Amino acid sequence: MERRFIVRGLLVGAIGGLLAFVFARIFAEPQIQRAIDYESGRDAAQAVLDKAAGLTAETAGPDLFSRTIQANVGIGVGMIAFGAAMGGLYAVAYALACGRTGKLRPRNLALLVALGGFLGFYLIPFIKYPANPPAIGHEETIRDRSGLYLVMVVSSIAFLVLAVWLGQRLKPRFGNWNATLLAALACAVAIGIVMALLPSLGHLHANVEQFGRHPTETPLPLKDPQGRIVYPGFPADVLFNFRFYSVAAQAILWAAIGLCFAPLAERLFAETAQAPGTAPEPVTA
Question: Which residues cross the membrane (predicted)?
Answer without folding.
Answer: 73-97, 109-127, 147-167, 179-198, 244-265
